[in-house]
Amino acid sequence: DAGVIQSPRHEVTEMGQEVTLRCKPISGHNSLFWYRQTMMRGLELLIYFNNNVPIDDSGMPEDRFSAKMPNASFSTLKIQPSEPRDSAVYFCASSSGLAGLAQETQYFGPGTRLLVL
Amino acid sequence: GNSVTQMEGPVTLSEEAFLTINCTYTATGYPSLFWYVQYPGEGLQLLLKATKADDKGSNKGFEATYRKETTSFHLEKGSVQVSDSAVYFCALSLSNQAGTALIFGKGTTLSVSS
């Protein structure tokens, strides 16, 4: 069984450039989560989707960040324009997403390590 | 609000030592509790979980008991191995109408030497 797939694994870009991170959740999972991990702030939830619909985007830091989930098997997180403070590891996770089941396990991808110069 | 507090690391132990990583939580509802582990260069993976008071989660020799009275979920292992070196995250989950989201602690780094 393929797990959560993220691409690219590493991204180095210059300030001001657009960055797009991609995620393919586990087949059949209905919930998808984007997290950001930094040394200073730890793991932060950016946004999550249920059945392709954004449920909570209160963690998205600012308008430079946007996320989409056009179908059940694909999501993108876009940063435009990127800034050095966006440097972090970005994780995507998915779960079976049955509403009300707080005990569900989330399955994480390997992450995208982003460096903005 | 809802939050998770973990003991700060790093925790440095010798092989076969006893491990405790403390975790306490604040929640407005009745959460499920999790421990996730992150090995170097990898994503997080579930280590164990408990969904109601007094439940004990266990896996790979690790255990944690859901203590509602002390709002705690401390992680323990009787004899650690070098391969247990990783970052450990305590987390809680509260359901809402449309789904669930995890709230993580800041993580505790464990380093085990032979």
List keywords for this structure.
heterodimer; A: mainly beta; four-stranded antiparallel sheet; B: 114 residues; mainly beta; 12 strands; globular
Question: Could you please describe the fold and organization of this structure?
Answer:
- Chain A has 117 residues and is mostly beta strands.
- In chain A, 0% of the residues lie in helices and 53% in strands.
- Chain A has no helices and eleven strands.
- Chain A has strands at 5-7, 10-13, 19-24, 31-38, 42-50, 53-56, 65-71, 74-79, 88-95, 107-108, 112-116.
- In chain A, strands 2, 4, 5, 6, 9, 10 and 11 form a seven-stranded mixed β-sheet that branches. A four-stranded antiparallel β-sheet of chain A has the order 1-3-8-7, with no helix packed on it.
- The radius of gyration of chain A is 14 Å and the shape is globular.
- Chain A starts with a strand and ends with a strand.
- The relative contact order of chain A is 0.33.
- The model of chain A has no long low-confidence stretch (mean pLDDT 91).
- Chain B is mainly β.
- In chain B, 0% of the residues lie in helices and 54% in strands.
- Chain B is globular, with a radius of gyration of 14 Å.
- Chains A and B meet through strand 5, strand 6, strand 9 and strand 10 of A and strand 5, strand 6, strand 10 and strand 11 of B.
